[in-house]
Amino acid sequence: MTFFVENETDSDFGFDHEDLIKTVCEKTFSEEKAPVDHLSVGVTITDSEGIRELNKEFRGIDSATDVLSFPNLDFDSPSDFDIPDEKKVLYTDPDTGDILMGEIVLNADRVFSQAEEYGHSTKREMAFLVVHSCLHLCGYDHMTEEEEKIMFSRQEEILNQLGILRETDQA
Fold first, then answer.
1. Cα separation of 46 and 162, whole Å?
2. pLDDT digits (tens, 9 = 90+) for 99-148
């Protein structure tokens, strides 16, 4: 998996955030039966102002959020990685052949504040947001109750498999 992390903040999370993000991405994509060895994902860590600007520009919502996902693939159903030949040129890096999954933007300010609000570690909060975003990159959404039930269940399953639990103080 080709993996890029850009941290635009000077936040100290108290753990190796790049390693956590990569581990969570790999686990999520593996659980979703994605071709993990042939994926490319970009992750940017920004602050509330940076994510507010992106949210306004791309979603028309002038407020900060915790995470944004910018999927590159269009899925007929979540995690259907059977890409038609005519779309492969749109979804793959011509130099590596990797599937360009998309971009994840994390709000460092919200990682800290939501961890405190929900009573768990910053590591757990970051992992939760990364799983959530990776599932969006795989075509999941939560616009209906049924979609939300399915997506949120997947999130918890993956975090549990990683041993990143709400009640665990990990960072």
1. 25
2. 999 999 999 999 999 999 999 999 999 999 999 999 999 999 999 999 99
Per-residue three-class SS string for 83-145: CCHHHHHHHECCCCCCEEEEEEEEEHHHHHHHHHHHCCCHHHHHHHHHHHHHHHHCCCCCCCH
| pLDDT band (50, 70, 90) for residue 166 | confident
Main-chain phi, psi angles of 63, to 5 degrees: -155, 160
Percent over 90 (pLDDT), the chain: 91
d(CA 144, CA 120): 27
Place of tokens 């933007």: 105
> Is the per-residue pLDDT at 167 higher than 80?
no
CA proximity to 164, closest of 132, 133, 120: 120
Q: Measured between alpha carbons, how far is 63 from 50 in angstroms, rounded to an integer?
A: 10
Q: Tokens for 157? A: 């399953």
The three-point CA angle 58-19-168 to 5° equals 95
